Amino acid sequence: MLRTMHHVAIIASDYEKTKHFYASILELPIIQEVYREEKESYKCDLKIGNSQIELFSFPNPPERVNNPEARGLRHVCFGVDNIDQAVQWLKNKEVVCEEIRTDPVTGQKFTFFKDPDALPIELYEL
């Protein structure tokens, strides 16, 4: 029945700063951006592979629990061909990454960095 992940939705505390992070720093193409006046909210769709990130703004959104062991979505993960190159690319853009680790089960390399709202993002070498 389920075939693919269509999108992940993110609510930003600072919409312009977060849009800049995903569109300019991470270089995800903007598919479309709309302002929804009835909700006082922007929505920006960004392309990542065959999926999308839906980026939203809302007036006064509540704080996110920033504990990765809390219930709910734990993190977003992007697959990369070469993690060393991807980490260097992010560092060149002044994005701080954790040390690269190796998954003890799969043997694959991975690391984490955070978006402007401290949402954890994983890079996983495919």
TrEMBL record:
Entry-linked Pfam families: Glyoxalase
CDD domains associated with the record: VOC_Bs_YwkD_like (cd08352)
Statement: the UniProt record of this protein carries the keyword Metal-binding: yes
Name of the protein this chain belongs to: VOC family protein
Presence of keyword Magnesium: no
InterPro entries in the cross-refs: Fosfomycin_Res_Enzymes, Glyas_Bleomycin-R_OHBP_Dase, Glyas_Fos-R_dOase_dom, VOC_core, YwkD-like_dom
Domain VOC residues, every copy: 4-126
NCBIfam families: PRK11478.1
Stored PANTHER family: FOSFOMYCIN RESISTANCE PROTEIN FOSX, LYASE, PUTATIVE-RELATED-RELATED
Keywords carried by this UniProt record: Metal-binding
